[in-house]
Amino acid sequence: RYCQSHLPSHMIPSIFIILDKFPLNANGKIDRKQLPSPDFSLSALLSSVKSDTPLNQFEERIHTIWCQVLHCDENHISGTASFFSVGGHSLRFIELYYRYQSLFNFNARSLSIGLFLQQPTIRQHAQLLQTLPSNDAQTIRWQSLVINEGKTSLN
């Protein structure tokens, strides 16, 4: 809770290991080789954030996208779990954002990636995406970069 109140969600460690005391070497310094290794397996991360609250149909769609981006087959990601607490990192988050853009047809001006970073859960992403107008697929006017033939002054 302290980290949540003082750090942005993407900077909160996903794993904490509680130790009674730090292992010390002969010089009285912390012996890093004797520290326990954290379990970074996705199943361990997902099992720590299970939720009994069911997801609605739109949230299920977001959940499926998360599982594709995180390369997980399990359905244990809670609707209230942060993307970063279930094994996500910044590059995966960018991939997630671009998947949202392609599936829901919006551009970065409509919903910036910063909004998704500030609200990093499935439920919050679903709320953000549902705020999009139904016809948000704004077409970008493409202009030719080919110079038309004709006389032009180069001075």
Automatic annotation (TrEMBL):
One of its GO terms (cellular component) is cytoplasm. It holds the Pfam family PP-binding. This is Carrier domain-containing protein. One of its GO terms (biological process) is amino acid activation for nonribosomal peptide biosynthetic process. It comes from the Eukaryota. It comes from Adineta steineri. One of its GO terms (molecular function) is phosphopantetheine binding. PANTHER family: FATTY ACID SYNTHASE (PTHR45527:SF1), NONRIBOSOMAL PEPTIDE SYNTHETASE (PTHR45527). Gene3D superfamilies: 3.30.300.30, ACP-like. Residues 53-133 form the Carrier domain.
